[in-house]
Design brief:
Largest sheet of chain A: 6 strands, antiparallel, barrel
Number of domains of chain B: 1
Order of helices and strands of chain B: HHHHHH
Radius of gyration of chain A: 24 Å
CATH architecture of one domain in chain A: Beta Barrel
Helix content of chain B: over 70%
Number of strands of chain A: 14
CATH superfamily of one domain in chain A: Rod shape-determining protein MreC, domain 1
Distance between the termini of chain A: 67 Å
Number of strands of chain B: 0
Helix content of chain A: 25-40%
Strand content of chain A: 25-35%
Largest sheet of chain B: none
Strand content of chain B: under 5%
Largest interface: A-B, 61 and 64 residues
Oligomer: heterodimer
Amino acid sequence: MSDRLNRRGSLEPHDPRRPRRSLVTALVLTSLALMAVDQVAGADGSSPVDPLRRAVGEVYGPVENAATTVVDPVAALPSWVRSRREMAADLASARSEADQLRAQLASDDYDRNRLQEYDDLTATAESLGYALVPARVTAMGSAQSFSRTVTIDAGARAGLAPDMTVVNGQGLVGRVLRVSATTATVLLVTDADSTVGGRVGSSMKVGFLHGRGDLGDGSRLDLELVDQTYVPKAGEPVVTWGSQDGAPYVSGVPIGTVESVYSSLRETTQRAVITPYVDFSALDQVGVVVPSGTTSDRAVIEVDGSLR
Amino acid sequence: MNARNLAIAFAVSVALVLQTTVFSRLTVEGVGPDLVLLVVAAVALRHGSQVGLATGFVAGLLLDLAPPADHVAGRWALALLVVGYVAGRLTSTGEPRPVQWLGAAAASSFVGTSVFALSGIVLSDPAVATGELLRTSAVALGYDVVLALAVVPLTLALLERVEPDRVRVLGLSRP
């Protein structure tokens, strides 16, 4: 195998620097097979590659956490303390926003019947309660990978599980995709694959928010409303609509404001461009929404704003 | 595992951690440098495309699986094994001159991000506009060439340190 005849019929020694054809074939095929397996199984959300991801995450996750801690040890402490207050404030602002919505509902005769329903829902949400696990963003995917994901330094030990809502002081950040013991991977709402149920604050109209895959100061979300006759106004706030059991998104978390609206005659739908409250290029402190009373390896911000 | 493989594993791991943590905060228009890709290119320049190919595959696999990656696994593995192969074929001596390795780094960056982006288009994972793709690749190329000025010499120096060139020690000339 190491020596082979060339075209002129003379024996050529194998150059040790050149790869064997069998190795090239084997590795290329392995890559392609891995892609195929991951792609096909990705439909129902789980993949045979997930245990591998988890295993690599268990090794590199703590190293990433440590590296981030080493890189900015000075910045870490004050923002840690400050962010807890910010998250409590965020919770308060989310509640006041809910109150506002309720007030607007009450003033609207047409929606009066829905008020009772909403009241019940609010009561349920309050009895369920949202508690926040604070965490720091330790690693971010670069734009070359074209997916908007970050790693945070809290994992299964902190009480996290997949499909939990991630917020920060400004608003909705994303949701937990997968967890290792000490880290979790978060899909940002700006990812092109991300879809969030949203509700236009002043009218309670529901729709779906899609990420565009861009980031930085210019990151925007597209809102597609279910009611195609309704035209949202610029500046209207958009909050999460929420889903059953608060997974993957709890309801009432502020997402952003309506920047502009454009209608497509061809698709006969209204699309609105949403400016998110969160600056995704400068993510640092985040909070993960966990059920009240979750056992965690760190202090949990409880529903009433207290630390536990 | 011999000293050379250990050194390569060490260099790839350091590059991976730095790329996801430190340099993800130092981005240009959201684009960070591909440190792992540069390390693979440097290893291939030093040890040829056989080692480059294998290093590229393993490094790419780590990049696919380590958090916060969420794309289809195997995409970076394929992209970086092509990088390892191409970079290994660019020089035959194992002692590339600065002009050579700068050119090789630029070529590697272009090839790597292109293969990765193309595999994304084929798998439509995720759906990204072609214009955005080209812009990102261009910025990445520029950033990579700048970072190559530090990463490639450091990696070459590390590899030279753990395994001095036997051929040169024996006083023979390479073909």
